[in-house]
Specification:
This protein is α/β, with parallel strands linked by helices. The protein is built from 20 helices and 13 strands. The chain folds into 3 domains: about 230 residues, 3-Layer(aba) Sandwich (Rossmann fold); about 190 residues, Glucose-6-phosphate isomerase like protein, domain 1 (Rossmann fold); about 35 residues. The relative contact order is 0.13. The structure holds glucose-6-phosphate.
Length: about 550
């Protein structure tokens, strides 16, 4: 569907006018005048609960945002995605990560192909393989069970599996240790190889294209390391591949019988549900992997069926759009109050910023509004002792997504009460702030002199009025984690539709890759120095002199 420029749409212009009215709203007033704000601005789905009441908006704002989502065609685009239409226009591909977590029936037919049969066929092969490794039936070349798994992949072939394996560590097989190697920096592989033994290690080479420089270099070095310690006929027991590129894995020396395929309609950053999740299934087993898929599928159904006004990913997307465009917030901080989600902010960084960090519409025109904010963050309570200062009193307003489980996966209940208390206190503090009058009253109560109070009050004042969402689940389980990931995937999708950018390509990563190839050849002496700028020339000369 050809979109007109966002800022010229009637619904955008209505929001612009409304934003002027909303400019002076204070969150603490919005709560004071409406005791029912919490029930009105909360929603639950697929084991997740979202409280969006601490955002600077009212029911009218949400109505106007829903008008915008409708005018931009969110519902039609959503249906086109689920149906397997080629919505990734610049790469002419369907976008079907939702099919990876759908049940076998009803079958999804795309271009005459039974996609569901393909997906479930690979899942079954993964089940047989992972069951054998986990049960100690799949043995290394000297007859010992596998103890260590090294996943070699980068970007989408690393961030998802790594994040999920950490998040589900309590569900993991006790014998299997997971290692993730992604960086072309040899220190990464060196550190992993230092921890494993060739007789008991399984390497997964995870690469959709099987051409990615970092992964290929790490895979070749891991293979060389292995062959120095075991014969070539031992390779088949220790190297498997996850890819769409059968020819390349054969050339690498992996038996296609040990290859777990997926398809071009799975984008890298949306691939954890596919065979790219092999390391996850090895860690937690087929049953919990199925629960992860089931949680995501439940959220998919909610996204498909709930009206936009009560649709969790749509709400997150619309609120994010409001904060970015009309409150001018340059970034979004992700604050999981759960240590096992400590890679979740990094995962969302790729999901959101690689998908929507764009300035050109699908039709090639400049986007005429702001697009994706910077996504960043770390676990609470650690972040509170580091960068929360800026979030409370810095000059930028940074919205925050708090994420927590109501019940812990351990038995130290007092820790959990302290954790949740901090999580809720932070969102309250961001919302309310503390006025100078309140600060002065406190300081008077502490017996400070008027002069001391005058000096201190500005420093102790909190502007507040800072928006946040809180996402709660009962426990962090494979099911709720699946739903959580799918929630953010669909949020990203909806924002992409509103901005009319292609959320499924990533041309912006190409330029640096091409230049790096040239410079690598220069550093290795295989190419004459090219004419760079004086800075780049100078840096290359320093690196060459250091060899
Ligand atoms: C994700 C990107 C990117 C990709 C990596 C790895 O959406 O496409 O992060 O996942 O570049 O690519 P390969 O899996 O092909 O090695």
């Amino acid at each position: 569907m050809r979109q007109i420029a966002l800022s010229t749409t009637a619904s955008y212009q209505a929001l612009e006018t409304h934003a002027l009215e909303a400019e002076d709203w204070l969150l603490r007033d919005l709560f004071a005048i409406d005791p029912a704000r919490f029930p009105a601005f909360t929603v639950d789905a697929a084991g997740l609960f979202l409280d969006y009441s601490k955002n600077r908006l009212d029911a009218r704002t949400l109505e106007l945002l829903a008008d915008l989502a409708r005018e931009r065609g969110v519902e039609d685009q959503r249906d086109a995605m689920f149906a397997g239409e080629r919505i990734n226009l610049s790469e002419h591909r369907a976008v079907l990560h939702t099919a990876l977590r759908a049940p076998r029936e009803p079958a999804l037919m795309v271009d005459g192909q039974d996609v569901s049969a393909d997906v479930h066929g690979v899942l079954e092969r993964m089940r047989v393989f992972t069951d054998a490794v986990r049960a100690g039936i799949w043995l290394g070349h000297s007859g010992k069970p596998i103890t260590d798994i090294v996943n070699i992949g980068i970007g989408g072939s690393d961030l998802g599996p790594k994040m999920v394996c950490l998040a589900l560590r309590q569900y993991a097989h006790p014998r299997l240790k997971l290692h993730f190697v992604s960086n072309v920096d040899g220190h990464d592989l060196d550190a992993a190889l230092g921890k494993v033994h060739p007789e008991t290690t399984l390497f997964i080479i995870a690469s959709k294209t099987f051409t990615t420089t970092e992964t290929m270099m790490n895979a070749q070095s891991a293979r060389a390391w292995f062959l120095e310690r075991a014969g070539a006929d031992a390779l088949a027991k220790h190297f498997v591949a996850v890819s769409t590129n059968t020819e390349a894995i054969k050339t690498f020396g992996i038996d296609p019988a040990n290859m777990f395929p997926f398809w071009d309609w799975v984008g890298g950053r949306y691939s954890v549900w596919s065979a790219i999740g092999l390391s996850v299934m090895l860690a937690v087993g087929h049953g919990y992997f199925s629960d992860l898929l089931a949680g995501a599928h439940a959220l998919d159904l909610h996204f498909k069926e709930a009206p936009l006004e009560k649709n969790m990913p749509v709400l997150l997307a619309m609120i994010g759009f409001w904060n970015r465009q009309f409150l001018g917030c340059p970034s979004l901080s992700i604050a999981p109050y759960h240590q096992d989600l400590n890679r979740f902010p990094a995962y969302l960084q790729q999901l959101d910023m690689e998908s929507n960090g764009k300035c050109v519409t699908k039709g090639g025109q400049p986007v005429d509004t702001l697009t994706c904010p910077v996504i960043w963050g770390d676990c609470g309570t650690n972040g509170q002792h580091a960068y929360f200062q800026l979030l409370h009193q810095g000059t930028d307003v940074t919205p925050i997504d708090f994420i927590a489980a109501l019940r812990p996966g351990h038995e130290m209940g007092h820790h959990h009460a302290a954790l949740l208390a901090n999580c809720f206190a932070q969102s309250e503090a961001f919302m309310r702030g503390k006025t100078t009058a309140e600060v002065k009253q406190d300081l008077q109560g502490q017996g400070l002199t008027e002069a001391q109070i005058t000096d201190l009050a500005p420093h102790k004042t909190f502007p507040g009025n800072r928006p946040s969402n809180t996402i709660l689940m009962e426990y962090l389980t494979p099911y709720t984690l699946g739903a959580l990931i799918a929630l953010y995937e669909h949020k990203t999708f909806v924002q992409g539709v509103i901005w009319d950018v292609n959320s499924f390509d990533q041309w912006g990563v190409e330029l640096g890759k091409v230049l790096a190839k040239k410079i690598e050849a220069e550093l290795n002496g295989d190419a004459q120095p090219a004419q760079h700028d004086s800075s780049t020339n100078g840096l290359i000369a320093m690196a060459k002199a250091a060899v």
